[in-house]
Amino acid sequence: MNDQSRTRFNLVATTILALVVVVLLNYISSQHYKRWDWTTERLFTLSDQSQQVLRELDQTVRIYVFLARGETDFADVETLLEEYKAVTSRLEIEWIDPDRDKARYQVLTDKFGVDSWLAGETTLSQVPIVVTSGDRKWKVERHQLIVEDFDSFEDADGHKLDLQSERALTGAIVEVTTGQPTNICLAQGHGEWELGAFGDRSVDDVARELDWEKIEIVPFDLRGGEDVPPSCVALFVLSPQRLYSPEEVATVDRFLASGGNVLLAFDPLLKKEKLQPTGFEESLGKRGIVVGSDLVIENDESRQLPGNPGDLFISIDLGTHRVTDTIRKRGGGILVAVVRSVDAAEGSDAEVIMQTSPNAVAESDLGRALATDPKAAGVTLKVVPLAVAWEYVPPLGKDLKPVESDGPEPGRLLVLGDSDWMSGELLDNPQLSNIDLLSSTAGWLTQREALINIAPRKTKARAVIMSDADLDNLLFRVVFLLPVAAFIAGFGVWWSRRT
C-alpha cells in the first residue's frame, strides 16, 4: 500500500471511528438524561415534591399544550416540561399550534370546552394546558403560568415575575391521578379570619395561594352544632377572638377523631391586660399539646426585625418533621408576630416543629415579658416552642405490630401560637419561607404530601438597555472586527496549505 492509499485508508477509518463514537455518545446520553439549570434562581429545577409525584405515577398522564411557538410563555413551558419528561416515562405531551394545527386544535378545544381569541393574527387559547389521565381532566389557565408582579416596577432591584408553572402543573397531575377531595373548611363564628374581609384578618391571600394547589377554602360556622361536612378534608381555625365553648371544641374533636385534619393558629388574646385561654386547652392536653397563656419575646438581635422589641422575629430553629424538614434543609426562616408558646408534653406523640433561640422568654406577665433587661427582671431565658404537629400513632400489640382499629383512624393536627405568619405580605416575600410553610401545611393536612413546599419561583424581569456608545461598539464589532477575523482565519488556512 503506497503512502497515498494509506492516507486515504486512515482518513476513512478515522471518519468511521468518529461516527461510532458519536453514535455511542448519543446512546449513552439518551440512557442517562441530564439537564443543567443555569438560571440564577434555579427556575427550571424541579422541586423534590414534583419529582416525587412524577416517580410515583402508576398511570399514563397526557398533557395537551395549546401554545404557538412564538408566544411569550412557550420557551419557559417547553423547558419545564422537558424537566418533567426527564423524571418519568409515563408522561405524554402533545403540542398543538392553534394557527398551524387548526383542525386538531378545533377538535380538542371542543372536547375540553376551551375558548380562544385573536390577538392580531395569532390565536390565543384561554386554557393553554390541559392535563388528562383516564376520564379525568384538569385545565391550567393562562394566568397560572407566569404572573407579573406589578407592584415591583419601582423596586430598586428590578421588576419581578412569579413563575407559577410548576405548582400549577404538579397540582393538575395530582388532581387527575388521585381524585382526592380538596376542600378545607374555615371555622367561623368567633372572630376568626374570614374570606372577603378587609385588613389584616382576611384569608383571601391564603386562599389565593392554595388555589394554585387546587385547594378551595369553604366557610363553616361552628356555632350551629352541626358536624364538619365530610367533603372537607381539613378544618382551619385561624386566630379566634372569643373563647370556644366545650360543645364547639367537641365538634372539632369529633372531626379529628373521624379522620379529619385540623390547623389551630392561636394568637395571644389580651383582655383586661390578661392573656386569655382558647377553650382548647383540655382537649389538646389529652394529646400531649400544651398551649401557653403567655407572650413570647425573642431577645436574639440577629433574629429580630429592626425597630421591634422582639415580638416580631424570624424563627430558623425548625424541626425535622415533614412539614418543616425541606424548609430547614434549605436554611429558610419563618417570620412570626406576637406569638404564644405551644409545646409538646414529655412522652407524648406530639412533635415540636418550630421554636425560638435560647435567648427568648415566654411570660404571662406582660411587664416581665417586655422588660428591657430580662435577667434583671428575673425572667429565665430559654428555648420556647412555637408550633407542634400531632398524628395518631396506633398502639403496638404483643407481636410489636400496630393494633388495627375497627373505626376510622384519627387525622392530623397542627397547632401554632401565631396566625400572622399567613398574612399576604409575608407570603409574598421571597426572602422568607412563610409561603413554603403554608404550602407544606396544606399538603400535610390534606394528605397530599407530594405538594409539600412547592412554592412560586421569584425572578427578575431584566431588560436589555443599550446606550448610544454601546450601539457604536456593537456596530464596530459586527461591521469591522468579524470580517477581519474571518479574513485572518482564511489567510491562515491558505498559508498552511501553500507551505
Q: Looking at the structure, what is the overall shape? A: elongated
**CATH fold descriptor of the largest domain:** Rossmann fold
Helix content: 25-40%
Give start-end ranges of low-pLDDT stretches.
148-162, 456-465
Notable characteristics:
499 residues; alpha+beta; Glutaredoxin; Rossmann fold; eight-stranded mixed β-sheet; four-stranded mixed β-sheet; 13 helices; 22% strand
Layout of SSEs?
Layout: H1 3-31, H2 48-55, E1 61-65, H3 74-87, E2 91-95, H4 102-112, E3 116-119, E4 122-125, E5 129-133, E6 136-140, E7 146-149, E8 160-163, H5 165-178, E9 183-188, H6 204-211, E10 216-221, E11 232-238, H7 246-257, E12 261-265, E13 269-271, E14 274-276, H8 281-285, E15 289-291, E16 295-298, E17 312-315, E18 317-318, H9 322-330, E19 334-337, E20 342-344, E21 351-355, E22 360-363, H10 366-369, E23 385-391, E24 412-416, H11 424-427, H12 434-445, E25 457-460, H13 468-498
Helix pairs in contact: 9-12
How would you describe the overall organization of this protein?
The chain is α+β, with helices and mostly antiparallel strands. The protein has helices spanning 3-31, 48-55, 74-87, 102-112, 165-178, 204-211, 246-257, 281-285, 322-330, 366-369, 424-427, 434-445, 468-498; strands at residues 61-65, 91-95, 116-119, 122-125, 129-133, 136-140, 146-149, 160-163, 183-188, 216-221, 232-238, 261-265, 269-271, 274-276, 289-291, 295-298, 312-315, 317-318, 334-337, 342-344, 351-355, 360-363, 385-391, 412-416, 457-460. It has 13 helices and 25 strands. The strands form eight sheets. The protein has an eight-stranded mixed sheet with strand order 10-9-11-12-24-23-21-18, sandwiched between helices. The protein has a four-stranded mixed sheet with strand order 2-1-5-6, covered by helices on one side. The radius of gyration is 30 Å and the shape is elongated. Helix 7 (246-257) links the parallel strand 11 and strand 12. The chain folds into three domains: 1-32; 48-153, Glutaredoxin (3-Layer(aba) Sandwich), CATH 3.40.30.10; 184-455, Rossmann fold (3-Layer(aba) Sandwich), CATH 3.40.50.880.
